[in-house]
Amino acid sequence: MRKTLFTYATALLAALTWSPASDAQEPEQQDFYPLVLLGDALEVCSSMAWQRCSDTDWIDRDSMRYDRYVNLSGPYVEALLDDANWSPLRHDTRDDLKEAIDLLRDRLKQDVISERSFTEEFTRRATQYLYQQLSERDWNLIIDHLEMPVPRDADFGVNLTATKSQVNIDYMRQILSQAQQVSGDETPHVLVVTAAQRDSLDLVNYYLQAFAGAGADASWLPIDVAVAAAREAQACESLADYRASEMSAFRRDVVHADLHARQVAFCQAGDALTQIRNADVLFFADGNPDLLRPLLVTALNEPNALAVGIAERVAEAKLVVAAAGKAANVMTSQAMVAGGSSREALKDGVHATRLPGLGCHKDDTCPRDLNENSATYHPIGGAGLFRWGSLDTRMGVEGNHGRLLRVAATNRVPLAVGIDAETALLVSLRSGDFKVAGERGVFFAAGAQQNERAVAATFHYLMAGSSGTFSGSDVSAVTFAENAEVVQVEPTTNFIASRGLYDSLRLLCRDRDSIEVKWEQFTMTLIGGDDVKTQKAGAECQVQNARIGMQYAPSESF
């Protein structure tokens, strides 16, 4: 067994190392970037997310799925309140829930309501106290059990032309332009993987129709950790039970009956590698890195056969891999960021374990010495495609720089790369060349070091339109962007949970050599100097070779 695992790991490294001999046999491809990392989820206008639409007149409520519906009548509620769903310590919460649902039914005078209405009613008035006592798992349990089946004749309407955010349309164009170099004259085939999502069935048709609307053929790879566990146990007929135990997803076989049947069939006889060999793009949807990673890494933390097969196709220039949001974190071969807050990372360090669930303290499921915001990572990495360093996403929106720096310093990772929301990083795995696309930027940190309360590194920040090359443990041949979109939000000094780093960075473009910013019990220092290059892009400041330090500095108590 050990020999086989070693062979997989060796094959992955070989797959990602190109030789001149193999180059001569491949068709010439110009500006080819087979790894596309999106800093956030791919979100376009759809009938289920009309808030993303500039126009909603096209939504046909008679033929399109435009909301989820929950049923507050007997059979649904009885299944939810079953003892099997609640630990003995949570029976009081379960009993309060029964009273809350009865109260809602009496108030609303109807059994079937939209999920939006149910959430709005449940989170206010007399039932608000109960909502505040629920963990994320509790809430998912409630919605999953009350949700009604999706009508089989209801389409998931998607309208790309009505999408408010142009950057999401640009994402798809970037992905398909790379795929066109693989598919040639044929229509690109996109294979969608929703395994990172707790409910891996819910958005399948959304992604398929989005890519179809962009001009691709699209299909679904029906794999997730529940399928993998059921297949290993030779119990595919019990797939719904494995979803509950492995993903905390309940009754998905009832709500999404058709997709469940397809997943059972795949569990019994499907071949993921064959589907990948027939694809031009493998798209990983945003979700929980802890759900996606086990599909690509063995229990001994080595790339499995699926990861090796993907890497081989990429190495042959026959596959583009795109990953959105937190799924992008999994693409690294270095320490993999799972989640958590920069606040906790700077205060308490980072932890080599799975991410605790939100509200885990409410149902007593937090691992020892951790809380719902604890920053966690996997030291051996993920899929292994991005070999230069650790990855993280939603940087400016969530202020994730602190946790990324901590993970890099703890694991002595030479380079850490953080991608803003509304931004894509396109990478040539052959040469290390990269370019930044979208509307925001990418944060690069080299040589991160730390002590108990502080972390520091050399860093660069490049806006969309910039380019460079991953070279050893840093980046080189950097070309700054000339322009950038103006951020339409108020400036902030909050660098712990918002874009305070970038707002403070602007001072380096105004000939300041150093900036010190305080936010609550934290201090950030940015240092420029003669060796630092700066250039404005729109209202933003791009830098190369600056220094950053972040420190947890609580007030002394007497």
**How many individual β-strands?**
22
What's the helix count?
A: 20
Strand content bin: 15-25%
Helix share bin: 25-40%
Strand order in space, largest sheet: 5-4-6-7-1-13-14-17-18
Write the layout of secondary structure elements.
Layout: H1 2-15, H2 20-25, E1 35-38, E2 69-71, H3 74-80, H4 91-108, E3 112-114, H5 115-122, H6 128-131, H7 136-146, H8 166-183, E4 189-193, H9 204-213, E5 217-220, H10 225-232, H11 239-247, H12 252-255, H13 257-269, H14 272-277, E6 281-284, H15 289-292, H16 305-315, E7 320-324, E8 336-339, H17 342-348, E9 350-351, E10 375-378, E11 390-393, H18 395-398, H19 401-410, E12 415-419, E13 423-427, E14 433-438, E15 441-450, E16 454-463, E17 467-471, E18 474-479, H20 500-505, E19 514-519, E20 522-527, E21 533-537, E22 540-552
Parallel strand pairs: 1-7, 4-5, 4-6, 6-7, 9-10, 11-12
Antiparallel strand pairs: 1-13, 2-3, 8-10, 12-15, 13-14, 14-17, 15-16, 16-22, 17-18, 19-20, 20-22, 21-22
Q: How would you characterize this protein structure?
A:
With 558 residues, this protein is α/β, with parallel strands linked by helices. The chain has a domain at 69-146. It has a nine-stranded mixed beta sheet with strand order 5-4-6-7-1-13-14-17-18, with helices on one face. The N and C termini lie far apart (59 Å). Keywords: Signal. Residues 1-24 form the signal peptide.
